[in-house]
Amino acid sequence: MTLGPIAILGGTGQQGSGLARRLAAAGVHVVVGSRDPVRARAAVDAWDPTVQVDVADNPSAAASADTVVLAVPFATVDALLAEIAPRLKAGAVVIDLIVPLSFAGGKMATIDVAEGSAAEHIRAKLPPTVTLACAFKTVPAHLLDRVDAPLDCDEFICGDSDAARARAIDVAAALAGLRPVDVGPLSRARGIEQMTVLAVAINRRHKIHDARFRVVGL
Ligand SMILES: NC(=O)c1ccc[n+]([C@@H]2O[C@H](COP(=O)([O-])OP(=O)(O)OC[C@H]3O[C@@H](n4cnc5c(N)ncnc54)[C@H](OP(=O)(O)O)[C@@H]3O)[C@@H](O)[C@H]2O)c1
User: Fold this and answer.
1) Cα 78 to Cα 76: distance, rounded to the nearest angstrom
2) What is the rounded distance in angstroms from the CA atom of residue 218 to the CA atom of residue 133?
3) pTM as predicted
4) Do residues 95 and 69 make contact, with C-beta atoms less than 8 angstroms apart?
5) What's the count of helices (H) and strands (E) in the chain, helices before strands?
6) CB contact set of 28 (below 8 Å; sequence gap of 6+)
7) Which one of 15, 81, 103, 111 would you pick to mutate in the ligand 1 pocket, going by the greatest count of ligand atoms within 8 A of its CB?
8) Other beta carbons less than 10 A from residue 191's beta carbon
9) Which residue(s) pair with 68 in the sheet?
10) What's the pLDDT tens digit per position in 33-68?
11) Whose CA is nearest to atom 15 of ligand 1?
C-alpha cells in the first residue's frame, strides 16, 4: 500500500515529530504543519538530513494531504480545527492522536470532554466530507522520538468508518514494530484515551518513560 502525502499538524511537537521522522524514514512524503513554518523549518532541518520532510503553515499542510494527523494539545485543537476545516480535501482522512490531558505544574489531570472523548469532540467539529480515525494515542513520545529504537508494541485504531480505520491501519503499519489493532467505532476512543492515562501513571510509579501496550491472544 502506497501512502500519499501525510500532513502532521503540530509535527514539531513531542509526539508529532517522532511520528513525522519515522514515517519519513519509511519513505512516506510528510508535510509538517505549524503555526510558524520558519521556526518549524529550522526544527525539521535538525532531523536526519538524508530524509526529505516538507513544512507549511497548518491550513496549507491540511489542504495538501489526503491524510491529516492532528498532533496538538487538546486545549488548542478547537482553534486549529476552525482554521483547517474549510481547507480539508473532500474525502480526506483525519487521524487524531490527541489525549485530553493537562500537565500544569507537573501534575497530570484529565480534561472532561462533554462528547466522551477527544475523538468524538473532534468529529463534531469536522465537516461531513472527511472521515476520522484514532491512532498513536498510547505509544509514548519518548520512545517514538528515538527513531532507531524498536517500538515493539500494539496501537489501537478506531474510527467512524471502515475507510478511515483502514487508512489509519496503513499509516500505523508503516512504522516498524508497531502492530495496529482495530478496535472498532470511534467511541472506543474513550477507552483508548484512558489507557494513555494508565500508561502515564505506570511511567510515573515505576520511574520509566516507555510504558505501552501489547494485546496477547490476538
Ligand atoms: N507526549 C506523549 O507521550 C503523547 C502520547 C500520546 C498522545 N499524545 C498527544 O499528542 C498531542 C501532542 O502532544 P505533545 O506532547 O507533542 O505536545 P506539544 O509538544 O506541547 O505540542 C505539539 C505541537 O502543537 C503545537 N502547539 C502547541 N501549543 C499550541 C497552541 N497554543 N496553539 C496551537 N498549536 C500549538 C506546536 O506546534 P507549532 O508551534 O509548530 O505550531 C507544538 O509543537 C497531545 O494531544 C497529546 O495528548 C502525546
Assistant:
1) 6
2) 21
3) 0.98
4) yes
5) 8, 10
6) 3, 6, 174
7) 15
8) 12
9) 7, 94
10) 999 999 999 999 999 989 999 999 999 999 999 999
11) 14
